[in-house]
Amino acid sequence: MNRYPSVVILLHWTMAAGFIFMLASGLYMVNADISKAEQFQLYQTHKSAGVVMLVAILIRIAVKVFASSPELPSAIPAEERKLAKLGHLALYLLLLAIPFAGWIMVSASPFGLPTFVFVDWLKWPHFPGVSKNKSVEEVAKLAHLYLVIIMIAVLLTHIGALFWHKKKQGILLLNRMWW
Amino acid sequence: MKSFSYVVIIFVSMMSTHVHALQLDADSSNATLSFSGQHAGMTFTGVFERWQSQLILPPNQEPSIKAEFILASAKTGDSTYDETLPEEDWFHVEKFPVARFISTQINLLVDGYRVEGTLELKGKGLPIIFNLHNREDKLIGNFDVDRLAYGIGLESDPGAEWVSQNIRLSLTINL
Predict the structure, then answer these.
(1) Which residues of B touch A (CB under 8 A)?
(2) How far apart are CA B78 and CA B76, in angstroms?
(3) Most CB contacts within 10 A, which of A128, A145, B64, B113?
(4) CATH ID of A6-177, from 3.40.50, 1.10.3470, 1.20.120, 1.20.950
Protein backbone atom coordinates (compact mmCIF):
# COMPACT_ATOMS: atom_id res chain seq x y z
CA MET A 1 0.00 0.00 0.00
CA ASN A 2 1.21 3.49 -0.81
CA ARG A 3 1.97 5.47 2.27
CA TYR A 4 2.10 9.18 3.04
CA PRO A 5 5.44 11.03 2.79
CA SER A 6 7.50 10.74 5.99
CA VAL A 7 7.10 14.42 6.84
CA VAL A 8 3.31 14.05 6.76
CA ILE A 9 3.47 10.93 8.95
CA LEU A 10 5.66 12.78 11.43
CA LEU A 11 3.33 15.79 11.48
CA HIS A 12 0.25 13.55 11.83
CA TRP A 13 1.51 11.75 14.93
CA THR A 14 3.12 14.82 16.49
CA MET A 15 -0.17 16.67 16.15
CA ALA A 16 -2.10 13.67 17.46
CA ALA A 17 0.07 13.72 20.58
CA GLY A 18 -0.26 17.52 20.66
CA PHE A 19 -4.04 17.34 20.52
CA ILE A 20 -4.16 14.84 23.39
CA PHE A 21 -1.92 17.15 25.44
CA MET A 22 -4.06 20.21 24.59
CA LEU A 23 -7.27 18.37 25.46
CA ALA A 24 -5.90 17.04 28.75
CA SER A 25 -4.26 20.32 29.84
CA GLY A 26 -7.32 22.32 28.79
CA LEU A 27 -9.76 20.17 30.75
CA TYR A 28 -7.43 20.01 33.74
CA MET A 29 -6.68 23.73 33.99
CA VAL A 30 -10.36 24.65 33.81
CA ASN A 31 -11.85 21.94 36.05
CA ALA A 32 -9.21 20.61 38.43
CA ASP A 33 -9.00 21.77 42.03
CA ILE A 34 -5.51 23.27 41.79
CA SER A 35 -3.83 26.36 43.20
CA LYS A 36 -4.09 29.66 41.37
CA ALA A 37 -0.34 29.58 40.70
CA GLU A 38 -0.55 26.15 39.05
CA GLN A 39 -3.65 27.19 37.13
CA PHE A 40 -1.93 30.35 35.88
CA GLN A 41 1.19 28.44 34.78
CA LEU A 42 -0.89 25.79 33.06
CA TYR A 43 -2.83 28.44 31.15
CA GLN A 44 0.45 29.95 29.92
CA THR A 45 1.73 26.50 28.86
CA HIS A 46 -1.57 25.73 27.11
CA LYS A 47 -1.39 29.08 25.28
CA SER A 48 2.21 28.48 24.10
CA ALA A 49 1.46 24.92 23.02
CA GLY A 50 -1.63 26.21 21.21
CA VAL A 51 0.56 28.51 19.13
CA VAL A 52 2.71 25.49 18.24
CA MET A 53 -0.46 23.60 17.21
CA LEU A 54 -1.59 26.51 15.05
CA VAL A 55 1.78 26.73 13.31
CA ALA A 56 1.84 22.94 12.92
CA ILE A 57 -1.51 22.82 11.12
CA LEU A 58 -0.39 25.63 8.79
CA ILE A 59 2.73 23.62 7.94
CA ARG A 60 0.56 20.54 7.51
CA ILE A 61 -1.73 22.38 5.08
CA ALA A 62 1.29 23.72 3.16
CA VAL A 63 2.72 20.20 2.91
CA LYS A 64 -0.69 18.89 1.82
CA VAL A 65 -0.78 21.45 -0.97
CA PHE A 66 2.76 20.78 -2.20
CA ALA A 67 3.21 17.06 -1.49
CA SER A 68 1.10 14.40 -3.17
CA SER A 69 -1.15 12.24 -0.98
CA PRO A 70 -1.51 8.55 -1.78
CA GLU A 71 -4.88 7.60 -3.27
CA LEU A 72 -7.13 5.42 -1.17
CA PRO A 73 -7.17 1.78 -2.34
CA SER A 74 -9.68 1.20 -5.15
CA ALA A 75 -11.25 -1.62 -3.12
CA ILE A 76 -12.86 1.13 -1.07
CA PRO A 77 -16.10 2.28 -2.72
CA ALA A 78 -16.12 5.77 -4.28
CA GLU A 79 -18.80 6.92 -1.88
CA GLU A 80 -16.66 5.98 1.15
CA ARG A 81 -13.59 7.60 -0.40
CA LYS A 82 -15.60 10.79 -0.77
CA LEU A 83 -16.67 10.61 2.88
CA ALA A 84 -13.05 10.03 3.90
CA LYS A 85 -12.01 13.19 2.05
CA LEU A 86 -14.78 15.13 3.77
CA GLY A 87 -13.72 13.75 7.14
CA HIS A 88 -10.10 14.74 6.53
CA LEU A 89 -11.18 18.21 5.44
CA ALA A 90 -13.16 18.53 8.68
CA LEU A 91 -10.07 17.53 10.69
CA TYR A 92 -7.97 20.16 8.95
CA LEU A 93 -10.57 22.86 9.47
CA LEU A 94 -11.04 21.95 13.13
CA LEU A 95 -7.31 21.82 13.83
CA LEU A 96 -7.13 25.31 12.36
CA ALA A 97 -10.26 26.71 13.99
CA ILE A 98 -9.65 25.43 17.54
CA PRO A 99 -6.30 27.19 18.14
CA PHE A 100 -7.58 30.21 16.22
CA ALA A 101 -10.56 30.49 18.59
CA GLY A 102 -8.14 30.14 21.51
CA TRP A 103 -5.99 32.91 20.09
CA ILE A 104 -9.01 35.24 19.73
CA MET A 105 -10.04 34.38 23.29
CA VAL A 106 -6.61 35.26 24.68
CA SER A 107 -6.41 38.43 22.57
CA ALA A 108 -9.83 39.65 23.74
CA SER A 109 -9.35 38.69 27.39
CA PRO A 110 -9.61 41.55 29.92
CA PHE A 111 -6.34 40.28 31.44
CA GLY A 112 -4.49 41.28 28.28
CA LEU A 113 -1.69 38.85 29.13
CA PRO A 114 0.90 38.26 26.43
CA THR A 115 1.57 34.82 24.95
CA PHE A 116 5.15 33.62 25.01
CA VAL A 117 6.21 30.53 23.15
CA PHE A 118 9.03 28.42 24.61
CA VAL A 119 9.21 30.38 27.90
CA ASP A 120 9.94 33.86 26.51
CA TRP A 121 11.82 33.10 23.35
CA LEU A 122 9.03 34.27 21.05
CA LYS A 123 6.27 36.72 21.79
CA TRP A 124 3.15 35.77 19.88
CA PRO A 125 1.08 38.88 19.07
CA HIS A 126 -2.53 39.39 20.02
CA PHE A 127 -5.07 39.25 17.21
CA PRO A 128 -5.66 42.91 16.30
CA GLY A 129 -8.84 44.80 17.00
CA VAL A 130 -10.35 42.68 19.77
CA SER A 131 -8.38 43.88 22.80
CA LYS A 132 -10.35 43.68 26.08
CA ASN A 133 -13.56 42.86 24.29
CA LYS A 134 -15.60 40.71 26.66
CA SER A 135 -18.32 39.78 24.16
CA VAL A 136 -15.73 38.65 21.60
CA GLU A 137 -13.99 36.70 24.36
CA GLU A 138 -17.26 34.98 25.32
CA VAL A 139 -18.03 33.96 21.73
CA ALA A 140 -14.46 32.73 21.16
CA LYS A 141 -14.58 30.79 24.43
CA LEU A 142 -17.79 29.00 23.43
CA ALA A 143 -16.41 28.35 19.94
CA HIS A 144 -13.19 26.93 21.46
CA LEU A 145 -15.24 24.53 23.59
CA TYR A 146 -17.81 23.43 20.99
CA LEU A 147 -15.19 23.01 18.26
CA VAL A 148 -13.28 20.67 20.59
CA ILE A 149 -16.45 18.63 21.22
CA ILE A 150 -17.00 18.38 17.43
CA MET A 151 -13.31 17.50 17.04
CA ILE A 152 -13.65 14.60 19.47
CA ALA A 153 -16.66 13.29 17.50
CA VAL A 154 -14.81 13.60 14.17
CA LEU A 155 -11.70 11.97 15.69
CA LEU A 156 -13.75 9.01 16.92
CA THR A 157 -15.15 8.66 13.39
CA HIS A 158 -11.59 8.96 11.99
CA ILE A 159 -10.39 6.11 14.23
CA GLY A 160 -13.63 4.16 13.77
CA ALA A 161 -13.16 4.30 9.99
CA LEU A 162 -9.90 2.34 10.41
CA PHE A 163 -11.81 -0.54 12.01
CA TRP A 164 -14.65 -0.18 9.47
CA HIS A 165 -12.33 -0.56 6.48
CA LYS A 166 -10.41 -3.38 8.14
CA LYS A 167 -13.62 -5.28 8.79
CA LYS A 168 -15.44 -4.50 5.57
CA GLN A 169 -12.64 -4.48 3.01
CA GLY A 170 -9.87 -6.15 5.01
CA ILE A 171 -7.61 -3.13 4.50
CA LEU A 172 -5.47 -1.81 7.34
CA LEU A 173 -5.26 1.88 6.41
CA LEU A 174 -3.01 2.56 9.39
CA ASN A 175 -0.12 1.34 7.23
CA ARG A 176 -0.51 4.45 5.06
CA MET A 177 0.24 6.61 8.10
CA TRP A 178 3.12 4.59 9.59
CA TRP A 179 6.72 3.91 8.60
CA MET B 1 48.68 70.65 61.50
CA LYS B 2 48.59 66.92 62.04
CA SER B 3 46.38 67.26 65.12
CA PHE B 4 44.11 69.58 63.16
CA SER B 5 43.74 66.85 60.52
CA TYR B 6 42.68 64.37 63.20
CA VAL B 7 40.08 66.82 64.44
CA VAL B 8 38.75 67.19 60.91
CA ILE B 9 38.62 63.41 60.44
CA ILE B 10 36.83 62.91 63.75
CA PHE B 11 34.43 65.72 62.95
CA VAL B 12 33.70 64.34 59.49
CA SER B 13 33.19 60.82 60.85
CA MET B 14 30.77 62.21 63.43
CA MET B 15 28.90 63.93 60.63
CA SER B 16 28.49 60.68 58.76
CA THR B 17 27.24 58.67 61.73
CA HIS B 18 24.84 61.31 62.94
CA VAL B 19 22.36 62.65 60.47
CA HIS B 20 22.42 66.39 60.78
CA ALA B 21 20.62 68.51 58.27
CA LEU B 22 20.86 65.79 55.68
CA GLN B 23 20.43 66.85 52.11
CA LEU B 24 20.96 64.46 49.26
CA ASP B 25 19.91 63.30 45.83
CA ALA B 26 18.90 59.69 45.51
CA ASP B 27 18.39 57.68 42.37
CA SER B 28 19.07 54.16 41.13
CA SER B 29 22.83 54.75 41.43
CA ASN B 30 22.83 55.11 45.21
CA ALA B 31 19.44 53.70 46.12
CA THR B 32 16.97 50.96 45.35
CA LEU B 33 13.26 51.34 44.92
CA SER B 34 11.61 47.97 44.69
CA PHE B 35 8.02 46.77 44.65
CA SER B 36 6.48 43.45 45.51
CA GLY B 37 3.12 41.81 45.68
CA GLN B 38 1.31 38.58 45.10
CA HIS B 39 0.05 37.23 41.82
CA ALA B 40 -1.89 33.95 41.79
CA GLY B 41 -0.43 33.26 45.21
CA MET B 42 3.13 33.74 43.93
CA THR B 43 5.28 36.59 45.18
CA PHE B 44 6.64 38.89 42.51
CA THR B 45 9.27 41.57 42.98
CA GLY B 46 10.60 44.25 40.74
CA VAL B 47 12.56 47.48 40.72
CA PHE B 48 12.24 50.90 39.20
CA GLU B 49 15.31 51.29 37.07
CA ARG B 50 14.89 55.00 36.41
CA TRP B 51 13.83 57.42 39.10
CA GLN B 52 15.31 60.37 40.92
CA SER B 53 14.66 62.24 44.10
CA GLN B 54 15.83 65.19 46.15
CA LEU B 55 15.70 64.91 49.91
CA ILE B 56 16.11 67.81 52.26
CA LEU B 57 15.60 66.38 55.71
CA PRO B 58 15.08 67.92 59.14
CA PRO B 59 16.43 69.77 60.96
CA ASN B 60 16.71 71.73 57.73
CA GLN B 61 14.40 74.71 57.86
CA GLU B 62 12.27 73.65 54.94
CA PRO B 63 12.47 69.89 54.71
CA SER B 64 11.09 68.30 51.59
CA ILE B 65 11.21 65.18 49.49
CA LYS B 66 10.49 65.24 45.80
CA ALA B 67 10.71 62.23 43.59
CA GLU B 68 9.88 61.22 40.04
CA PHE B 69 9.61 57.66 38.77
CA ILE B 70 9.64 56.56 35.17
CA LEU B 71 6.89 53.95 35.17
CA ALA B 72 8.13 52.25 32.01
CA SER B 73 11.31 51.41 33.91
CA ALA B 74 9.50 49.05 36.31
CA LYS B 75 11.04 45.64 35.72
CA THR B 76 10.33 42.29 37.36
CA GLY B 77 12.46 40.05 35.14
CA ASP B 78 9.33 38.06 34.25
CA SER B 79 8.35 38.72 30.64
CA THR B 80 4.64 38.22 31.29
CA TYR B 81 4.60 40.90 33.99
CA ASP B 82 7.00 43.23 32.19
CA GLU B 83 4.86 43.17 29.06
CA THR B 84 1.63 43.71 30.98
CA LEU B 85 2.67 46.48 33.41
CA PRO B 86 2.97 49.28 30.80
CA GLU B 87 -0.52 48.54 29.44
CA GLU B 88 -3.49 50.86 29.74
CA ASP B 89 -5.17 48.95 32.56
CA TRP B 90 -2.00 48.86 34.67
CA PHE B 91 0.47 51.78 34.53
CA HIS B 92 -0.75 53.18 31.20
CA VAL B 93 2.75 54.50 30.58
CA GLU B 94 1.83 56.17 27.29
CA LYS B 95 -0.54 58.56 29.01
CA PHE B 96 1.11 58.67 32.44
CA PRO B 97 4.83 58.09 31.93
CA VAL B 98 5.89 59.56 35.28
CA ALA B 99 4.75 59.01 38.86
CA ARG B 100 5.55 61.67 41.45
CA PHE B 101 5.90 62.01 45.16
CA ILE B 102 5.92 65.36 46.91
CA SER B 103 6.11 65.63 50.67
CA THR B 104 3.82 67.89 52.64
CA GLN B 105 5.41 67.39 56.04
CA ILE B 106 8.52 65.72 57.42
CA ASN B 107 9.15 65.24 61.11
CA LEU B 108 12.24 63.99 62.87
CA LEU B 109 11.89 60.66 64.67
CA VAL B 110 14.29 59.04 67.13
CA ASP B 111 15.66 56.80 64.40
CA GLY B 112 14.68 58.63 61.25
CA TYR B 113 11.86 60.62 59.75
CA ARG B 114 8.13 60.53 59.41
CA VAL B 115 7.15 61.59 55.93
CA GLU B 116 3.73 62.69 54.79
CA GLY B 117 3.01 63.56 51.23
CA THR B 118 1.16 62.91 48.03
CA LEU B 119 1.89 60.08 45.66
CA GLU B 120 0.66 60.73 42.15
CA LEU B 121 0.16 57.64 40.01
CA LYS B 122 -1.84 57.37 36.80
CA GLY B 123 -2.81 61.01 37.17
CA LYS B 124 -4.29 60.51 40.62
CA GLY B 125 -2.73 62.03 43.75
CA LEU B 126 -3.40 60.32 47.07
CA PRO B 127 -1.94 60.99 50.52
CA ILE B 128 0.60 58.59 51.96
CA ILE B 129 2.55 58.45 55.19
CA PHE B 130 5.69 56.43 55.77
CA ASN B 131 8.71 56.32 58.00
CA LEU B 132 12.27 56.53 56.78
CA HIS B 133 14.47 54.73 59.25
CA ASN B 134 18.15 55.33 59.76
CA ARG B 135 19.90 51.96 59.72
CA GLU B 136 23.68 52.32 59.93
CA ASP B 137 24.59 53.95 56.62
CA LYS B 138 21.17 53.54 55.06
CA LEU B 139 17.78 55.16 54.99
CA ILE B 140 15.07 52.54 54.72
CA GLY B 141 11.37 53.00 54.14
CA ASN B 142 8.49 50.67 53.33
CA PHE B 143 4.95 51.49 52.50
CA ASP B 144 1.95 49.90 50.81
CA VAL B 145 0.19 51.29 47.77
CA ASP B 146 -3.44 50.34 47.20
CA ARG B 147 -3.36 49.68 43.45
CA LEU B 148 -7.15 49.75 43.12
CA ALA B 149 -7.33 53.23 44.70
CA TYR B 150 -5.15 54.39 41.80
CA GLY B 151 -7.18 52.46 39.25
CA ILE B 152 -4.32 50.07 38.53
CA GLY B 153 -5.52 46.74 37.14
CA LEU B 154 -9.09 47.82 37.79
CA GLU B 155 -10.45 46.22 34.65
CA SER B 156 -8.40 43.01 34.74
CA ASP B 157 -8.73 42.22 38.41
CA PRO B 158 -11.05 44.54 40.34
CA GLY B 159 -11.60 41.99 43.11
CA ALA B 160 -7.85 41.48 43.71
CA GLU B 161 -8.52 37.83 42.99
CA TRP B 162 -5.25 37.41 41.10
CA VAL B 163 -3.05 40.38 41.96
CA SER B 164 -2.86 41.61 45.55
CA GLN B 165 -4.56 44.93 46.21
CA ASN B 166 -1.61 46.24 48.23
CA ILE B 167 1.74 46.54 46.53
CA ARG B 168 4.65 46.98 48.90
CA LEU B 169 7.19 49.62 47.94
CA SER B 170 10.61 49.42 49.57
CA LEU B 171 13.11 52.22 49.43
CA THR B 172 16.73 51.85 50.49
CA ILE B 173 19.07 54.80 50.18
CA ASN B 174 22.78 54.32 50.77
CA LEU B 175 24.13 57.31 52.63
Answers:
(1) 39-42, 79-80, 83-84, 87, 89, 155-157, 162
(2) 5
(3) B113
(4) 1.20.950
